[in-house]
């Protein structure tokens, strides 16, 4: 099923694309600092625009530019947040280097508050994903990411202090 309903819509869409693609790429790049991800954000934005074309301003004017920039900015922010969450990559692995003895890790883990210890165990020992932990503990995924990050940082600090 085509996203655009008529030949006229296709022509208008193409005209809007050529008018605003550079502005949208610039906007997405400012957020993501990565050309490929910015292009992905713009492509996703144009797919969204095509899907909701009936509610988009079709004239080349500041209102249309604002609509397009808002759409691509929100998509770029979503990509940035997702990338940032994925970058929280196991701080625990960084924390537990070969320099630390297992005894000191056990002691540090026991010294953590129960909530932090539980999150670390569920994720790193039992291998549950953040999504699974969120469902299990009835939390949002963002909350689980943040708690993992805080727990790993606290554990790292405790390990460094000895």
From TrEMBL:
Residues 16-85 form the RNA polymerase sigma-70 region domain. Transmembrane segments: none annotated. Pfam families: Sigma70_r2, Sigma70_r4_2. GO terms for molecular function: DNA binding; sigma factor activity. GO terms for biological process: DNA-templated transcription initiation. This is RNA polymerase, sigma-24 subunit, ECF subfamily. Residues 104-155 form the RNA polymerase sigma factor 70 region 4 type domain. Belongs to the sigma-70 factor family. ECF subfamily. Keywords: DNA-binding, Sigma factor, Transcription, Transcription regulation. The lineage of its organism: Bacteria, Bacillati, Bacillota, Clostridia, Eubacteriales.
